[in-house]
UniProtKB/TrEMBL annotation:
It comes from the Bacteria. GO terms for molecular function: metallopeptidase activity. Pfam families: MATCAP. Its cofactor is Zn(2+). The keyword Hydrolase applies. Keywords: Hydrolase, Metalloprotease, Protease. One of its GO terms (biological process) is proteolysis. This is DUF1704 domain-containing protein. InterPro entries: MATCAP (IPR012548).
Length: 558
C-alpha cells in the first residue's frame, strides 16, 4: 500500500537499501527550502502492532501543528471510518530502527518541516492476506488528503503563489487512464437509455386512451434491445480500474461503471416490476420534503392566462427545429468546430437530446414563448454541456458523470427562468411530476395517477397523460422528480455565491464539483468551450443578484 501511495504522486525514486535515505533526502530538502522558502518532508511507515488508531500523525515542531490538523481533518472528511490521532513528540518523527533524517535544530535552521505518518495495516487479515477493497480505500483516502495538504503547505509556507500554482499530479493522463476512459465510452455509446425506455407509440397510445375515455390503461411499445446487458456488464468489469494510481480518476471510473451496471439491470428488467427498483438506485426516491414543496407549489401557483400573443402562435416540429438551427449558429460563432444535428422523428415523444443531437417528435407543437425557453433548456444546456464535455480529455464529461441528471435538469429549467420563459404552467408541470412519481411508487396504477393529475390538480387531459406516461415508462421511472430537486439545489448553490458558469463545463453533478476543481487545478480539465445565450454578458446584466433569489417560490409569476 505504501509503495502504491508513493507511486501515485508525480515522481517517485526507488533505491536499494544499501543507499541510505538520509544521504539524499536531506540534500534535496535543503535545496528545495532554499529555492521556495520552505520544504515539507513526510515520512510514512507501517505502524507497530500496538498502535490503537489507524493513522498516527506525528510531529515535533509547533509550526507543523496546523498542517497536521489539516491533514487529519481531510482524512476524516474523506473516510469517517478511518481513525486518526495526532501525536506530539520531543524528537523528529521516524520509524523504529532508522536513523534520524534531521535534528530539531537542523529543521529550524534549514526551514524544513517534518511530519511522520504511522499507518496500521488494517487492510491485512490475521493470516497475512491482503483485503484489496480496504487497501484501496486507505490508499485513495491518503492520496487525496496528501494532495490537499501539499497545496495548503505551498499556500502558507512557501513563496509559490497559490493562485498561479497547479498541482502537476498526472497532468499528462496515462495510457491506462485513456484506455479505460475510451472503453467506458464505447460501452456507454452502445445504447441510449432514455430512447430504450421511452415508448415509440406514445401519440397513438394517447389517441387510443382518449378513445377509451381514459378507463383503459394504454399499451406501450418499445424499441428492440440492441445490446445484451450481460455482455456489457462483463466488458465493464474486465476494465482494470483497480490498477490506476490516481485516486480521483479511479473514483470517477468506478462510479460510472456502477451506474452503467445498474442501467444494464434496468434494461434487462424493462417492463417488469424490478425496473422500478433499479430506477430508485440510479435516479433516487422522492423525499417527504420534496413532495411537500411540490404540493405547496401546486397550491399557490395560479395558472397562466393566455394573454400573451406569442402563447397563441403554435409552432410545428419543423418550425421548432428551425429555431434550434438558429441557436446552433449563435453557438458556432463562438466555436466554428461546434456542430450538431436536429432531427424530426416519428418514433419519439416530445423533445429529447441524445448525445448532442436534438430529436423532435413529428407530432410536436409548441407556443412561441415556450419554444424560446425550451431552446435554452435543450440546446443551451443539454447540447452545450455535451460539447463542453467533449472538449475535455475524458469522455466521461460528455457522456455524463454518474447522477449528473439532477444538476443538469435543474440548470436547464433555470435557463428557462433566466430568459424569462419559466411560466407558471411550466412550474406546475415540474411540481406535478414529483407528485406523479411518488404516486407511482406508492403502488397506484397508471389510470389512478392520471386521474389524480387531471381531477385533483386540474392538468389538461393530454398534459396529464404525458406526465403519467413519462413516470410509468419502462416499468416505473423516477427520473422526472429530479427537475424540481435539481432546481431547488441550484438556487441554494447560487445563494452561496457560487459560479453558475462552472456548471456548464460538462455533464457533472454538484457533489462532484470538488473533483472538477481538483482536475482543473491540475490542468486536466479546461474551462467551458461554449457559453450559452442565457449566460452571455448581455443576458446576465439583467440578473446581477442571482444569489438573492430566496427559494423556489420566488420564481412564481404573480
Amino acid at each position: 500500500m505504501l509503495s502504491e501511495l508513493a507511486k501515485s504522486e508525480t515522481a517517485s525514486i526507488i533505491y536499494k537499501t544499501d543507499f541510505t535515505r538520509e544521504e539524499w533526502i536531506g540534500v534535496i530538502a535543503e535545496a528545495l527550502a532554499k529555492e521556495f522558502g520552505s520544504c515539507l518532508v513526510i515520512e510514512v511507515w507501517n505502524a507497530p502492532e500496538d498502535q490503537v488508531q489507524d493513522i498516527s500523525i506525528q510531529l515535533s515542531q509547533k509550526n507543523a501543528l496546523q498542517l497536521a490538523e489539516y491533514f487529519a481533518k481531510n482524512i476524516v472528511l474523506e473516510a469517517p471510518d478511518i481513525t486518526v490521532a495526532l501525536e506530539k513528540l520531543s524528537k523528529v518523527p521516524k520509524p523504529d530502527g532508522h536513523a534520524d533524517l534531521f535534528t530539531l535544530k537542523e529543521l529550524q535552521e534549514k526551514q524544513i518541516m517534518s511530519l511522520g505518518v504511522s499507518i496500521k495495516q488494517r487492510y491485512v487479515d490475521r493470516q497475512g492476506h491482503i483485503l484489496p477493497i480496504l487497501l484501496r480505500h486507505f490508499r485513495e483516502t491518503l492520496g487525496k488528503s496528501l494532495s490537499r495538504l501539499f497545496f495548503e503547505f505551498l499556500r502558507i509556507h512557501t513563496t509559490v503563489k497559490a493562485a498561479e500554482f497547479k498541482l502537476q499530479t498526472h497532468e499528462e493522463l496515462s495510457k491506462s487512464v485513456l484506455d479505460i476512459d475510451k472503453k467506458l465510452a464505447q460501452e456507454s455509446q452502445k445504447f441510449d437509455f432514455l430512447l430504450l425506455v421511452t415508448p415509440i407509440n406514445a401519440h397513438e397510445a394517447w389517441l387510443q386512451f382518449k378513445k377509451d375515455k381514459f378507463y383503459r390503461a394504454p399499451k406501450f411499445i418499445y424499441r428492440p434491445m440492441p445490446i445484451d446487458p450481460d455482455l456489457v456488464k462483463r466488458n465493464l468489469y474486465n476494465l482494470r480500474i483497480e490498477d490506476l494510481y490516481d485516486p480521483t480518476i479511479a473514483y470517477l471510473f468506478r462510479d460510472k461503471r456502477s451506474e452503467l451496471d445498474a442501467m444494464m439491470s434496468m434494461l434487462s428488467d424493462r417492463g417488469k416490476e424490478d425496473f422500478m427498483h433499479g430506477s430508485l438506485q440510479v435516479f433516487g426516491n422522492v423525499s417527504d420534503k420534496l413532495l411537500n414543496i411540490a404540493k405547496a407549489l401546486l397550491t399557490v401557483i395560479e395558472r397562466d392566462e393566455p394573454s400573451d400573443p406569442d402563447d397563441k402562435v403554435k409552432l410545428d416540429a419543423h418550425e421548432f427545429a428551425q429555431l434550434a438551427h438558429d441557436e446552433i449558429k449563435y453557438l458556432q460563432a463562438q466555436r466554428p468546430d461546434f456542430n450538431t444535428t436536429v432531427r424530426v422523428r416519428d418514433d419519439i415523444s416530445g423533445v429529447m437530446v441524445n448525445r448532442g443531437v436534438l430529436n423532435i417528435s413529428k407530432e410536436y407543437q409548441i407556443g412561441m414563448k415556450r419554444a424560446k425557453a425550451l431552446i435554452q433548456h435543450e440546446v443551451g444546456t443539454h447540447i452545450v454541456t455535451y460539447f463542453n464535455g467533449k472538449a475535455q480529455p475524458l469522455s466521461l464529461f460528455s457522456l455524463g458523470v454518474p447522477g449528473y441528471e439532477q444538476l443538469q435538469e435543474g440548470l436547464a429549467v433555470f435557463a428557462e427562468y433566466l430568459i424569462g420563459g419559466l411560466t407558471n404552467d411550466r412550474l406546475r408541470i415540474i411540481a406535478g411530476r414529483v407528485i406523479a412519481v411518488r404516486h407511482m411508487l406508492m403502488g397506484h396504477s397508471f389510470i389512478e395517477t392520471f386521474s389524480m393529475l387531471s381531477e385533483e390538480y386540474e392538468f389538461a387531459n393530454q398534459t396529464a397523460f404525458q406526465m403519467t406516461m413519462r413516470v410509468y415508462r419502462g416499468g416505473g421511472l423516477t427520473k422526472d422528480a429530479l427537475y424540481l430537486q435539481g432546481l431547488i439545489e441550484l438556487i441554494q448553490y447560487l445563494k452561496e455565491g457560487k459560479d453558475i458558469r462552472l456548471l456548464t463545463i460538462g455533464k457533472i453533478r454538484e457533489d462532484y464539483l470538488p473533483i472538477v476543481q481538483d482536475l482543473t487545478q491540475r490542468g486536466i480539465l479546461r474551462p467551458p468551450a461554449l457559453v450559452p445565450r442565457y449566460l452571455s454578458i448581455e443576458n446576465m446584466e439583467r440578473h446581477r443578484d442571482l444569489n438573492k433569489i430566496g427559494n423556489i417560490f420566488t420564481l412564481i409569476n404573480h
